[in-house]
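Sample pair:
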Amino acid sequence: MKKLLCLAPLAIVLSGCAAMGTTGASAPASTSSSGGAAASPANVATFINRIETARGSALGMAEKVAVGGAVTETRGLVDGAQQRFVGALSQVSGLDGATVGALYPPVGAPLSQTETVQKLESRMGRKLATPQADAVKAATALRNNSLSSLKSNLAGHVGKTVGLDPEIVESLMPLVGL
C-alpha cells in the first residue's frame, strides 16, 4: 500500500506530462498558497519540455518520473519553509498568517532582512522591539538560506539526472515557482 501511495503523485505528474506533450499547449501558471507558481502537472510538464529543449533530446520515462518527483518534493519543502517563515513572523508581530503572507513576494525570491522588518512594522503601525526585530531578521535569513539550498539541491539533482548544467536547470525553475 505504501508503494502505491508513493507512486500516485508521480502518476498524476506523468499524466500531466503526457497530456501536455501531445497537445503542446501550456496552461497558465496557478499560484500556491504562498504566492508562487505551483508545481502542478501542467507546470511540471512545461518545465520538463524546456529541459528537453535545453538538452536537445527527449527525456526517457524514468527521467521524467525522477524530475517530476524531485520538483514536486522540493516545491513541498519550499512551501513548508515559507509557512514556517510566515508563522514565525505572525508569532512575533501578532498579525494573522494570511496578513503576513500577503506582505511578501513569491517564495522563489530572496527577502532583505531590513525590508522584511520594515514591511512588518508598517503593517503593524509600530516599531518592533529590538529582540522582535532580531527574531524577524533571523527568520528571514533562515528562510533565504533554506530556499537557496533547496533550489541548489534540486538543480544539481535534475542536472545530474538529465545531463544538464545545474545553472541551466536553475534558470528554468521559475516555471514551477522556484
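The chain has seven helices and no strands.
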